[in-house]
Design goal:
- The chain is an alpha/beta fold.
- The protein has 23 helices and 30 strands.
- It has a ten-stranded mixed beta sheet, sandwiched between helices. A seven-stranded mixed beta sheet has the order 27-28-24-23-22-29-30, with helices on both faces. A six-stranded mixed beta sheet has the order 16-19-18-17-20-21, sandwiched between helices.
- One zinc ion binds next to α4.
- One zinc ion binds near residues 157, 159, 160 and 182.
Length: about 775
């Protein structure tokens, strides 16, 4: 009997070969009707015929690997009498918005074709199909159709054209990005004067140069990498010298998972992430005795590794006997990663010897995503390729709105309906190029989704570079400008991620390097009682005066001296301790500068600081982990590395009351560490003990707040850049366990400043909606 169904499928069903799959399935079951993209993340299917039950069953079982079905709504309807099944044109109603698909790594089938000399894709560097390949990085606009991508200039050859329109070709039928050696992008080699180097095989050329110790730029999906051997100290040292990057770790790319196991100790869950279509860089403990040069990640006991995600990368890694290479972002110091030949020639001159290029335009720069494990849970350090710009649904109705994020390692966001799209990682917007890019990506999203922003949200910090951008946007759209406190934004970001509602009150622990406090101080060790519209600071660190402005973050000895001054040490004592620990010469002007810092701190000059970042800098200095910060987060990361090898020794954190707020007594902690050093404790044990006890103290403060108040959600949220520190998180968990409370960490967004834009949007929207602010 002929029956008919209207089926709406919600999930990741666009840009992943879902419609062609539905077409094949329906026709194989002799069903008639149509499938159409509804925009958003939905397709509508109309089927009529006899085997409609089989259809539903097989749709779930046999769907393309990248498709995710979240919801299926089935409706029985009257048959219409279609005579065939067809894929209908996407509906382009301005009101229906479709999700922008992120870039997906090459699938195993495409890799097989490239390796198999019996296919027409043999050795093809840029092979992809409906299930895999670049998406967002090559899109001019939505929906994801070939004419809207930078593939539009590559006209199909006869074979590709046939494959595209052949429903029996499972992976190429309606594959928007498909191509072959005949009709697709080609690989070229350029010297640094921009002249093409004529070579028979660019891959041979690349392999030869790299094995000879050369340093090359290689164009990938969202930008250029710098590729060279990771096993030779002289090569890595040369790269550090050329890139003027003395310490910051370089990412590696490994041929396959077995190589990853040779060089790292992957924690549980790492393999799944490494081999996922998102292919992030995963930070893992390094394996002792591996062939990886010590210079790849100096002072750290971890390395960041990813697996290949283009055919070219697979072919390249197969030819490298080590099985791994440095594949670090191809950017000039402080600037964004290059995304076209012109930028690479200018920006990477003096860094690389040659550029291995291809001629598919990169429309959006997308950096590799970086994930680490925090007490066993994967957390983002950087959210880019593979994840951005997927939206998250907040369950709260939002106005069209924009958030410009924070200042360092940041991203922006747009909101509409109940959705928030956080842009890909933009970087440090104190540089003009990154600020321009933030503007560009936000403007692109506004245009793409036809938004009329009513709200522009920005940080309270009076000196953030994106203030002008926010003010200009506010004028351009006649939109309300709303300031948001930094740690409140961190808290709201994770609230949104876990679907909290407007009426919910939570306790959020927001810990990081710097955020502008509403009292003008530098916050960063905060326990907040928060809703989307307000917050109350119930816990923090004991504040201390930190003179020195920006240099206070560069030289960890400065916060150390300041904290010692606040602890009550005399100058003579400070002088002695610094001399004894060999720290006096770590300041450019030595003892003079140290004394000046001490005197200023003592007399209450400099910002009032409650930042856990600066406090960990101080502890990192006294414990000899790091005395010069060459990249964001270096001193705490090195402190964590030392602590990894330590055992806890007894210490009970002291909590005091200052200005009616419970404070972690950091001066007590410092005094204890200095005494511990004097009595010959192992620095690793001291490092571990201070980190765990920071967490414990924050946990104790949290417990107190929850006990003393009603109607608070019994889940504690933790966010901020320091919330990725395993020892701190363990300390918090341990304290909370006493009352059976659990802690949630950000999973979809970075805990650091890459995630604050989401919180800014939520707060600004809710404040305007419920408080009229
Ligand atoms: Zn594929
Ligand atoms: Zn072709």
């Amino acid at each position: 009997m002929v029956k008919a169904l209207r089926i709406r499928v919600v999930g990741v069903v666009q840009g992943v070969g879902f419609r062609p799959f539905i077409y094949r399935l329906a026709t194989s079951l002799n069903l008639k009707g149509y499938v159409v993209n509804l925009g958003g993340s939905e397709v509508e299917i109309h089927i009529e015929g006899e085997k409609i039950e089989d259809f539903i069953k097989r749709m779930n079982l046999e769907k393309p690997p990248q498709a995710k079905i979240l919801k299926v709504i089935v409706e029985n309807i009257e048959p219409i009498g279609f005579d065939r099944f067809e894929i209908r044109e996407s509906m382009r109603k301005a009101t229906v918005r479709s999700m922008i698909p992120p870039d997906i790594a090459i699938c195993e089938h495409c890799v097989e074709e490239v390796l198999n000399d019996n296919t027409r894709f043999h050795n093809y560097h840029w092979n992809s199909c409906a299930w895999c390949g670049p998406r967002f990085s090559m899109m001019y606009k939505i929906p994801y159709d070939r004419e809207n991508t930078s593939m539009h200039v590559f006209k199909f050859c006869n074979e590709c054209s046939y494959d595209y329109s052949n429903p029996n070709n499972i992976r190429r039928f309606h594959g928007q990005g498909i191509s072959c050696p005949k009709c697709g992008p080609k690989t070229h080699v350029y010297d640094m004067d921009g002249l093409e180097v004529k070579v028979e095989d660019p891959l041979d050329f690349a392999v030869e140069r790299i094995l000879g110790g050369g340093i090359l730029a290689v164009k990938g999906v969202g930008g250029y990498h710098i590729a060279c051997l990771a096993s030779r100290d002289d090569v890595v040292a040369e790269l550090r010298f050329r890139k003027r990057r003395p310490m910051q770790p370089f990412a590696l790319m490994a041929r396959d998972y077995s190589i990853v196991q040779d060089i790292a100790i992957p924690p549980e869950g790492a393999r799944e992430l490494l081999e996922s279509p998102q292919r992030p860089i995963v930070i893992m403990p390094r394996r002792g005795g591996a062939k990886v040069s010590e210079l790849v990640a100096p002072g750290l006991n971890t390395i960041g590794v990813m697996l290949p995600y283009t055919a070219f990368q697979h072919l390249l890694l197969k030819r490298i006997p080590d099985g791994f290479l440095i594949m670090t972002s191809g950017n000039p110091r402080g600037k964004p990663m290059c995304r076209n030949l012109k930028q690479a020639l200018r920006g990477l001159r003096g860094i690389v010897d040659y550029i291995i290029d291809h001629d598919r335009e990169i429309v959006h720069r997308v950096d590799d995503s970086v994930i680490r494990f925090t007490d066993g849970e994967p957390t983002f350090l950087r959210r880019g390729r593979g994840y951005a710009p997927e939206w998250i649904e907040t369950g709260i109705e939002l106005r069209d709105s924009i958030a410009v994020g924070a200042e360092l390692q940041t991203a922006g966001a747009v909101g509409f309906e109940d959705k928030v799209i956080v842009t890909q990682y933009i970087g440090d917007i104190d540089e003009a190029a990154q600020l321009e890019e933030l503007d560009g990506e936000l403007s692109w999203l506004i245009e793409t989704y036809h938004l009329n922003p009513e709200i522009i949200a920005m940080d309270m910090h009076p000196l953030y570079s994106n203030r002008t951008l926010a003010e200009n946007m506010s004028k351009r759209f006649n939109a309300k400008l709303i300031e948001v406190q930094h740690h409140h934004a961190h808290s709201a970001s994770i609230m949104a991620e876990y679907g909290f509602k407007v009426e919910d009150t939570v306790v959020a622990i927001a810990i990081d390097g710097t955020g502008y406090g509403d009292d003008g101080g530098i916050w960063g060790g905060e326990v907040l009682l928060a809703t989307y519209t307000s917050y109350r600071r119930i816990g923090s660190l004991k504040p201390f005066h930190l003179p020195g402005g920006d240099t206070a973050a560069t030289y960890p000895v400065k916060p150390l001296i300041s904290l010692m001054a606040s602890t009550g040490y005399s100058w003579d004592e400070v002088n002695n301790i610094l001399e004894k620990r060999g720290l006096m010469n770590t300041l450019p002007h030595g003892v003079k500068e140290a004394n000046m810092t001490y005197m200023m701190a003592k007399s209450g000059r400099g910002a009032l600081v409650t930042s856990i970042g600066r406090t960990l800098d101080a502890l990192s200095a006294i414990l000899g982990a790091c005395t010069l910060r060459t990249y964001e987060g270096e001193p705490p990361m090195k402190l964590e590395s030392i602590a990894d090898g330590g055992r806890e020794v007894p210490y009970k954190p002291r909590i005091i009351d200052v200005d009616g707020i419970s404070r972690v007594d950091t001066t007590d902690l410092l005094k204890w560490v200095i005494n511990g050093l004097e009595s010959g404790y192992d620095v690793r044990d001291l490092a571990k003990t201070v980190l765990v006890n920071f967490g414990r103290a924050l946990g104790i403060i949290t417990l107190k707040a929850i006990k003393g108040a009603r109607n608070i959600k019994q889940t504690v949220l933790a966010s901020g850049g320091a919330a990725v520190n395993t020892h701190i998180i363990r300390g918090i968990k341990e304290a909370l366990k006493e009352e059976g409370l659990e802690i949630r960490l950000p999973r979809k967004m970075p805990p650091g400043d890459g995630g604050v834009a989401l919180g800014q949007l939520m707060i600004a929207n809710c404040k305007l909606e419920y408080e009229g602010v």
